[in-house]
Amino acid sequence: MKNSHSTTELFYHLVLVTKFRQKFDFNVEIVKSECEKQFAKKVICNAGNDHIHILFELSPNISISYFVNRIKSNLSRYFNKTNNRKPIKQVWPDFQTGYFCKSVGSSALSEVKKYIENQ
After folding, report:
1. For residues 80 and 68, which has the higher predicted lDDT (pLDDT)?
2. In this predicted structure, what is the pLDDT of residue 81?
3. Domains along the chain?
4. Average pLDDT over residues 9-20
């Protein structure tokens, strides 16, 4: 990411897991779209039947916790609407409260991409 005075390249590998490891058929394009709405760049994602792997670049102005909160709540809302579920009064009805997120250096970027694509 560039602005007039600095350049950053901050890549993250994020894993979100469904609550109680419930099986779910994730639409990867919807996940990618939601990430891009929250200003993530170069998004690559793939999903198992109970978790999602997302690789993305994020500006240093956006905290990871804020980004994850927005992604989880927006995806839960979307998936609840499309599955005709009644709203549940929980913070994230479809995802576990926790998550895994690790920064990825440029030297490991291609390996992480391959790992995610082979999920």
Report:
1. 68
2. 74
3. 11-117 (3.30.70.1290)
4. 93
Mean pLDDT, the chain, whole residue set: 86
Burial of 60 (0-12, 13-18, 19+ CB in 10 A): exposed
- 8 phi, psi to nearest 5 deg: -130, 155
Q: Which amino acid is at 49?
A: N
**CA atoms within a 13 Å half-sphere pointing along the CA-CB vector of 5:** 0
Q: What is the DSSP letter of 63?
A: -
Contact partners, residue 79, CB within 8 Å, separation at least 6 = 24, 94
Nearest residue to 51 (alpha-carbon basis) of 18, 86, 91: 18
| Candidate from 22-26, 31-35, 106-110 with smallest mean pLDDT | 22-26
Contact 34, 71 (CB under 8 A): yes
Q: How far is CA 85 from CA 65, 70, 81, in A?
A: 26, 20, 6
Distant-in-sequence, close-in-space partners of 59: CB < 8 Å, separation ≥ 6 = 1, 8, 10, 39
Amino acid at 48: G
Prediction pTM value: 0.85
